[in-house]
Structures are given as C-alpha cells and as structure tokens.
Amino acid sequence: MAAAAYRHLYQGKRWYRLRYKQLQKDPLCCFCADRGVVRPAAVVDHIKAHRGNEDLFFDADNLQSLCKHCHDSIKQQMEKSGVARGCDESGMPLDPNHHWGSYARSAK
Ligand SMILES: [Zn+2]
Questions:
Q1: How far apart are CA 32 and CA 104, in angstroms?
Q2: Residue 38's domain spans which residues?
Q3: What is the sign of the dihedral through the CA atoms of 11, 76, 38 and 104?
Q4: What spacing in Å lies between the alpha carbon of 15 and ligand 1's midpoint?
Q5: Are 44 and 25 in contact (CB under 8 A)?
Q6: Count of beta carbons in the 10 Å neighbourhood of residue 99
Q7: How far is the CA of 14 from the centre of ligand 1 (A)?
Q8: What is the domain count for the chain?
Q9: Neighbours of ion ligand 1 (CB under 5 A)
Q10: Using one digit for the tens of pLDDT, what is the confidence trace for 38-83?
C-alpha cells in the first residue's frame, strides 16, 4: 500500500505535535458532526491527499478529525470503488456529487 511509503512522515515529532493540536482544536469527528452525531475523533486525516508532499502533510488547514469508523469507511470506499484515481491535482474528487466534495466544503 502506498501509505507505507509515507510512514516516516507519521513517525516524526512534527506530525505528533500537529496531530495533538488538531485533536485539541477539533476533538469530535467532523463527518459524524455533519450527520448530527457527537463522537470523539480518534484519527487525524488529510483532507487533500498529500501523496508524500510535506507542505500538504504539515498544513494544519489540511487536517480533519475523524472517528475510527468514518476514517476506515472512507479508506475502504476508496479501495473498493477506486475513486482515489478520479482526483484532480489537489486530491479532490473530479465528480462534484462525490460525498468528499461536500465534506471538504463543510469542513472549511
Ligand atoms: Zn465519525
């Protein structure tokens, strides 16, 4: 899996601090919040796929707090449907009706 190639980014202190700050700022899952559900976040996710780009990786504005369930269901959907391939350069889905679009917009 591609994520293994970026593993070193997740192991540094810089990410650790950034992740900690994000969870302090936004301790609840933002996808659940969209549905009116209050659930504590466990995962800090990148809104735009960073693909190893450190500027995107360490951009505090590119982070969202998710619970494990939401995070895992996104990743599963990506792997099953292959929508990850249908992204523009910024990592956003090309299909404007794709649910990521609305999530990303509401997260701003
Ligand atoms: Zn959630």
A1: 13
A2: 2-107
A3: positive
A4: 21
A5: no
A6: 14
A7: 25
A8: 1
A9: 29, 31-32, 39, 67, 70
A10: 999 999 999 988 989 999 999 999 999 999 999 998 777 776 765 5
Rounded Cα–Cα distance for residues 3 and 82 (Å): 15
Ligand 1 geometric centre to CA of 31 (Å): 5
Buried b (16+ CB within 10 A) or exposed e, 39-62: bebebbbbbbbbeebeebbbeeeb
Q: Is 63 left (phi over 0), alpha (psi -120 to 50) or beta?
A: beta
Residue 101 has pLDDT above 70, yes or no: no
Backbone φ and ψ of 68, nearest 5°: -65, -40
Q: What is the distance between the alpha carbons of residues 103 and 107, in angstroms, rounded to a whole number?
A: 6
Question: Position 34: which residue type?
Answer: D
- What does the block give as tokens for 54? 């450190």
Of 67, 48, 52, whose CA–CA distance to 15 is shortest? 52
